[in-house]
Design a protein that fits this description.
CATH class of the largest domain: Mainly Alpha
CATH architecture of the largest domain: Up-down Bundle
Mean pLDDT: 81
Strand content: under 5%
Structural class: mainly alpha
Number of helices: 10
CATH superfamily of the largest domain: Rhomboid-like
Number of domains: 2
Largest sheet: 2 strands, antiparallel
Shape: elongated
Number of strands: 4
Distance between the termini: 35 Å
CATH topology of the largest domain: Rhomboid-like fold
Length: about 280
């Protein structure tokens, strides 16, 4: 059990379900601000100098800044990331998905503050980072894409609803583009890219056994549940019953039950018959 499993057991009930919907709804709000109240945009961007002066809402309000201001591009982005994000949440569970998104946001905020501190130490004056480039969740949403591609590399999607392409090739293109923008982009852009990729790397290195989230493993678990469900529901609410003697945990709370790996099918036995029963072929 890794640290994520321990955290999920302790705090999993506090996870926000359908987090992707809230994130994308924030983009719509940000787009409306840009077109209807452009002066308000300056009050929500991530600016460490102003946060240190008391404008603490900027720590979270910057997530409203959409990755693109073009309505058509934003529409395609919302449609794509709604499907990817909700699928990823169903695969990982709400808690792990929350950790992934919020850690990306946290890494970005920490990295921007670190950049602010470095520039202040070098030049001895406060430099408005928003003048260099706006920080948005563009690369955080891109990390959703990378995570999905890592779990479902062979899944095909319709690029712009026309061209079928596998996720692994799209992820490769994204990585190349991210490296290009990292090399040619400004300092703020580099910080955002590094923070999102760091989030992806740390999350997957800490979740060493990602195979259990893969489609084959998920299908195997679902198949096992379907097969075992009839054998797991008994009279009076019992969940275990020996296939030989018929006793359940309600008959004796000290009984232990195990499935036999040599029997064909899902047969459960108590400790008295686990090693003495005749295997079902």
């Amino acid at each position: 059990m890794n640290w994520l499993d321990k955290l999920e057991r302790k705090f999993g009930r506090y996870a926000i379900s359908n987090l992707t919907v809230y994130l994308l709804a924030g983009y719509v709000i940000g787009e409306a601000i840009i077109y209807l109240m452009p002066d308000l945009l300056g009050w929500i961007v991530l600016e460490p100098a102003l946060i240190l002066r008391g404008q603490v809402w900027r720590i979270i309000s910057w997530v409203l800044v959409p990755p693109t201001t073009r309505p058509i591009s934003l529409l395609f982005l919302i449609l794509l990331y709604y499907s990817l994000g909700t699928a990823l949440e169903r695969t990982w569970g709400a808690f792990r998905y929350n950790i992934y998104i919020f850690s990306g946001i946290l890494f970005t905020v920490v990295a921007v503050f670190a950049l602010y501190g470095i520039l202040y130490a070098i030049y001895g004056m406060e430099l408005p980072l928003s003048a260099v480039g706006l920080v948005s969740t563009n690369y955080i949403t891109m990390s959703i894409f990378l995570a999905f591609a890592a779990i479902y590399p062979d899944m095909e999607v319709m690029l712009y609803f026309i061209l079928p392409i596998k996720m692994k090739w799209m992820a490769l293109v994204y990585v190349v583009m991210a490296l290009y923008y990292f090399i040619t982009g400004g300092i703020v852009n580099r910080v955002a890219i590094a923070a999102s990729l760091l989030n992806f790397v740390i999350f997957f290195l800490s979740s060493r056994n990602i195979r259990r989230f893969g489609p084959r493993e998920q299908a195997r678990k679902a198949r096992f549940k379907r097969q075992s469900r009839p054998h797991m529901t008994y009279a009076n609410g019992a969940r275990h019953r020996c296939a030989v003697c018929g006793r359940t945990e309600l008959d004796d709370p000290n009984l232990e039950f195990r499935f036999c790996s040599k029997c064909k099918g899902n047969y459960e036995y108590c400790q008295d018959h686990l090693f003495t029963h005749e295997h079902v072929k």
